[in-house]
Design brief:
Blueprint: E1 12-19, E2 27-34, E3 40-42, H1 46-54, H2 59-80, H3 101-115, H4 117-123, E4 127-131, H5 137-150, E5 156-160, H6 161-173, H7 180-187, E6 192-198, H8 210-223, E7 228-232, H9 240-243, H10 245-252, E8 257-261
Parallel strand pairs: 4-7, 4-8, 5-6, 6-7
Antiparallel strand pairs: 1-2, 2-3
């Protein structure tokens, strides 16, 4: 059974039954579906769409139906990334670099990673975004995710280290939800996984299973030759305390990339 603990779906804000005006199509459920970029759209008669896609109809109707189907799939894929509303407008173009060469360098590394994703995917090449909080790491990671979904047709997911640990902890406490194995399988199923906020918790020597858990996640993807992006406010010297030394080695293999975020936080009033 497929488990989707981390990947959200668009909300259905309204559902009602209506009658299609086309003869023989009868009643169908119309839903108002939340859109990734804001607002909502109503679903159309499935029989009408099937007819437009599969029968001898006008090229215009077929094109409209095909575009609507593709838009629905893209909307679902974008929601499945887990990008929250705060970061949905984050693109490479909206990342402000000013005259700061370090910001420009980080932007270039992230843009090139996205544009060269086919090669990075083939090699399972990782990317680390390291630096102080509030300086745009999550912004650029979300820009990468949107690019690979929109342009490459790939799947992606961003999830915090804390959310992974909480989900696994919950799986130990209840048999109702997904198991730890199912959770790790979901994290290993996407083409690109972004693990955010690594190093935000306080390590507890001897009682902290976060490093071993994150190692499992990273190692599972490493074994499958799948790329991972890791975001942390810790430097390379401290990262092993939070993901384990072997996981750091996994991220460095195959020419793993690093984008340093060395400037001060630009966050004002909680806005990244």
């Amino acid at each position: 059974m497929t488990v989707f603990k981390f990947a959200p779906a668009p909300r259905l804000t309204e559902t009602r039954t209506v009658e299609c005006k086309e003869p023989g199509h009868g009643q169908f459920e119309i839903s108002v579906v939340e859109q990734f970029e804001g607002g909502a759209l109503s679903t159309s008669c499935p029989a009408c769409r099937w007819t437009a896609l599969n029968t001898q109809t006008s090229d215009l109707l077929r094109t409209v139906a095909r575009e609507a189907e593709q838009a629905d799939k893209l909307n679902a894929a974008l929601f499945a990334t887990g990008i929250t509303p705060r970061f949905r407008a984050c693109t490479f173009e909206s990342f402000q670099v000013g005259d700061n060469p370090d910001k420009q360098r980080a932007l270039n590394i992230c843009r090139q990673y996205a544009e060269g994703f086919a090669d990075h995917y083939r090699d399972g090449r990782a990317l680390m975004l390291l630096g102080e909080i509030g300086n745009g790491k999550t912004h650029l990671a979300c820009a990468i995710l949107q690019h690979i979904v929109r342009v490459e047709g790939a799947s992606g997911l961003i999830v915090t280290a804390e959310a992974i640990m909480q989900a696994v902890t919950d799986s130990f406490r209840s048999n109702a939800g997904p198991s730890k194995s199912e959770l790790l399988t979901e994290l290993a199923a996407v083409d690109l996984l972004v693990i955010d906020e690594v190093g935000m918790h306080t390590p507890r020597p001897g009682r902290d299973f976060m490093p071993s858990l994150l190692h499992e996640v990273i190692d599972r993807r490493y074994q499958l030759v799948l790329p991972t992006i890791l975001i942390s406010n810790q430097g390379r010297e401290r990262l092993p305390d939070f993901i384990g030394p072997r996981a750091l080695d996994r991220l460095r293999e195959k020419g793993g990339l690093l984008a340093p975020f060395t400037w001060s936080s630009a966050r004002v009033g909680g806005e990244a």
